[in-house]
Amino acid sequence: MSLLRLSGQGEMENVHLALEEDDLYSGYNDYNPTFDSDMTAKFPGTAIGARPLASSFGSRIPLTSSMGRPMTGAVQDGAARPMTAVRAAGYTSSMTRGSTFDPLGQSKGPAPPLETKNEDTPEEKIKSLEKKVNDLIEESCMAQSMGTLLLALEKAKEAGRKERALVRQRQQSGYADQINLDLTYSVLLNLANQYANNDMYPEALNSYQVIVKNKMFNNAGRLKVNMANIYFKQKNYPKAIKFYRMALDQISNAHKGMRIKILQNIGVVFIRMGQYSDAITSFEHIMSESPNVKTGFNLILCYYAISVKERMKTAFQKLISVPLGIDDEDKYIPTNDDASSNMVIEAIKNDKLHQMERDLKALAEKYIMTAAKLIAPAIENSFATGFDWCVDTLKSSQYVELANDLEINKAITYIRQKDFNQAVETLKTFEKKDSRVKSAAATNLSFLYFLEKDFDQADRYADLAMTADRYNPAALINKGSTVFVKQDYEKAAEFYKEALRNDSSCTEALYNLGLSYKKLNRLEEALDCFLKLHAILRNSAQVMYQLAHLYELLEDPQQAIEWLMQVISVIPTDPQTLAKLGELHDGEGDKSQAFHYYDESFRYFPSNIDVIEWLGAYYIETQFCENAIQYFERATHIQPTQVKWQLMVASCYRRSGNYQRALETYKDIHRKFPENMECLRFLVRLCTDMGLKEVQDYATKLKKVEKMKEIREQPSASAAVGFRDSSHSGSSTRGERLSAKMRSLPASNEPYEASSPKELDASYVDPLGPQMERPKTGAKKRVEDDDFADEELGDDLLPE
Length: 800
Known about the structure:
single chain, Serine Threonine Protein Phosphatase 5, Tetratricopeptide repeat, 34 helices, elongated, TPR_rpt, disordered C terminus, disordered N terminus, 62% helix
């Protein structure tokens, strides 16, 4: 033991304090001469023998610790280990017995396995629950971003349940003071947001209220903005104002952007409440602190609502002076031959930032144009003077290019007021402007002249618009339309195809191209055009009707019926489409369906002669003549000069057995048309059967009329020519009306219903015999081929 102390004393003597200039590693190679002799020692009370300690000089000193553990440097398993501070660490050339070269320790075998964590400990359970809660919040947010709002709400609720379980676990484990407030805040906020997204406003308000009332959450007062938004959606405007103001009070002036947005919301709520003065106060404050185009537009609306002219002008000037903070487009134009600079310009020309700048500029221009069109008629005594003031104001601002567009809108306002001359004069002033404005003005002029059916002028201005801008699809459509009305369908189709090459989404060009192919009897190509158009305009009844008509022309009535059924699904009360369905079903032999659709067409539009005639003939064929009377009586009101409808009414009375009413009807017809032979024949027969004295009078009149007819039909060339000329020139001639009736209603030799047979004149014809053939003239198709509606001439004709 004294030796150990000696060794310790010797070592302490060789220890030097490291000074600033000393070598930190000096003294380690010094040794005590006492270690040169071999000594062994055995500690009493231990069974461990001491092993010699090897020094750098090969001496062996058997030293052990007081616990029987060999000292550092003692020989173990035959391998000598250099003593610290005596022999340097590393490799040695003097290998002791049993030693092998194994610097990586690979001879010891694989390392023992790591100890597994005990997941049953409270700390591990708490960590696991925290991870599950965070994962559920993330899944809820992802579900919301993908539009699955119900799934997002379920995940948020589950996260809330897990978070409450986590709190209980902490309390049971004695870690109640380590509650994660940030996690609790995230769970409650996400749950409130998901309730609001699913329109569960009471639940959302309760969740927000839990957060706001908890003093441990910092800046929770801002969430009163969300609560105010919910009250706004519920149209509880006073409470929305209250919560917006409470949120505004809790946000410091350092957060200027947030305060501006809340003030803007307050102004919008005041507008909804009709308190324009209060809204103006909010908007004026915003325009003085941080102006933006939306607030400027809202301010103009408020002044317009209270009709303050000068304030409207001032607000408009503020609107056009709002700085947008975007770069000029010239920045993206290459200015030198530097390839690297040009590559950078090309890279940033269409990046997201530049796209955002373009969108912001387009939004500002939209607000400015809308505001100008709104206030122009109100700020001056006439709308023209107001437009001129707005145009002059724009010309002195950063929106100079909008001045021309506003002047075009002035012309369109003239059009809406039916003042076409002023519109034309206004548009003609653009003939010397730049190409874009000139093309737009010429397009509108072409449209105006087309409406007035001055197709030569329309064609001229369409050419002018094309010359100014050959890539203007509206100008090409107008040009094609002027050619179409001249029946040059091939050339019209070429213009429409060129318009489609310039703008593949131009539906007007595709529609007119289909009409052109239809006129050229290229039905398959027309069908292809309208099928493409239907893929773009899924609910266009006009397109679907054209498809039905094409299938009818292609002799595929079933397909035509299917497309007409789609038309009915869009406009179920269109009488022409219903009548067309009736015609197609009648052609297919389905009388019941035909009657259904004709009857529906008559219900919505009871003035279609073709439908009335079909329904009347249907009831006569089914032996319900009394039901046919109401239809023919309506026809007499629509066409009072056509005697055939009145004859049909009288015949229906006669065939239903009401002879007295039939006689009265025939007498009334005779008073209106005294030279009608059919009416006189029926009067003679009825009076004879009923034993009336007027029979001789009517017989005399009948003979006189027949004699006059014979005189007219004498072989006199001049008289025959005169008669034919008169019959062709006047559609009211009795002979023509009779012949038309006879063609539509073939003769029948069925005997008259009488108690005893009577001798009838050989020329007698019963206009409503049982073998009558109903005409198959269906309802007129809804969209005529050569009808040119506004939409067929391009969107740019009447820009909004």
